[in-house]
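Journal club side-thread
Mid-discussion, someone asked how the predicted structure for our own chain would compare to the paper's figures. Pasting it here so we can look after the session.
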Amino acid sequence: VPQQSTDIHGLTIDFLSDKKIFRKIADEFLEFVSDSPIIAHNVDFDIGFLNYELSNCEKDKLTNKTIDTVEIAREKFPGQSVSLDALCKRYNINIAAREKHSAILDTELLSKVYIELLDKKEPTLDLNIDTKTFENDTEFDVSKFKNRELPMRLSKEEEELHKDFVETLGPKAIWKKINSN
């Protein structure tokens, strides 16, 4: 391993000695990537390395759709630094663990940067929360829903369909409390 690579990535011969060479995992890699788009920071650089290794294994080059976060960032922030570090700082993404250029850590950071670049927020689901159920009318105030004017009226047929549907919801359905007179 050239010293320059060790300086950048922190990889040494000792560290790599028990790791598989690309040829041994090429098929697994291609199966993993499949036909999914490849998102990378300066994607042409990474695709070049991957295609070089694939050609050494007598495998076809990647033809996947690519998304380059450098290009997206340059469009969004013309004339400004669009390095991964700079974008992490811009979006307040913690890079304290980033001492060397690590593919795994950089992938995690880039996933957060990519979401920010697209002005989207990562959905968070807390599946461990307790679901609140209402045992009686005192816990759920139906008065604010009863007898209020609706902007649109239902036909008799639609009302009957709705009533039939509400019957399938069980005895504690909120709709039954709202619809009771």
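Post-session note: The longest strand covers residues 38-40.
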